[in-house]
Design a protein that fits this description.
This protein is mostly helical. The chain is built from 9 helices and 2 strands. The protein has a two-stranded antiparallel ribbon with strand order 1-2. The longest helix is centred in the first third of the chain and has 14 residues. It starts with a helix and ends with a helix. The relative contact order is 0.09.
Length: about 180
């Protein structure tokens, strides 16, 4: 029933806050059947996958969420977090190979796409790029496509601070304050 979609979204949000990803996925499947390309629903699905320990799937869903809405800052943030903290890649082995050393190699040139997308930027990294290199690309793309967003700058500023890039992180936060 379409009239219940807003209630179902709220229910999913509550379940995610309670870290009940498996239960939330059931309702998300119904919502996604009606709106399969909805970036918010994709983000929620990524959160569910994280709660279930399916980190590679979560990264893939976050990447798709960004592709559907380049202004969804939390999708970039979660994707970069998974890349850096869990060393997962948003591509499965068939799409982009990963050796035991955690390095990636492009195995399917068709993934590169034709336009400037996050997926294109990730696939076009050098063959010896790591998941952490990909996280850096995610953060740069986020700001490139959200240049007037104080939130994007603050998120990248925190990311840079956590990597020990204090000067760059401070500059991002200062720029965010100028925009706010």
């Amino acid at each position: 029933d379409p009239d219940r979609h807003s209630v179902r979204r709220q229910f999913v949000d509550v379940l995610l806050k309670l870290r009940r990803g498996a239960d939330a996925l059931q309702s998300l499947e119904i919502l996604q059947a009606a709106s399969p390309q909805d970036a918010e629903l994709l983000f929620m699905s990524g959160r569910c996958q994280e709660d279930l320990g399916q980190f590679t799937k979560a990264a893939s869903v976050y990447l798709t969420s960004v592709e559907q809405d380049t202004h969804r800052i939390e999708s970039y943030s979660r994707l970069a977090h998974l890349l850096r903290a869990r060393f997962v890649l948003p591509f499965d082995a068939a799409e982009k190979g990963k050796g035991a050393d955690g390095k990636v190699a492009v195995t399917d040139a068709s993934l590169a796409g034709t336009e400037d997308s996050l997926r294109t930027r990730l696939v076009n990294l050098p063959n010896d790029a790591t998941a952490r290199d990909q996280a850096d690309v995610v953060m740069e793309a986020m700001v490139d496509w959200n240049q007037e967003s104080p939130e994007a700058l603050v998120v990248r500023g925190r990311y840079r601070r956590d990597r020990g890039q204090l000067t760059d992180g401070s500059a991002d936060v200062a720029h965010a304050l100028d925009l706010a």
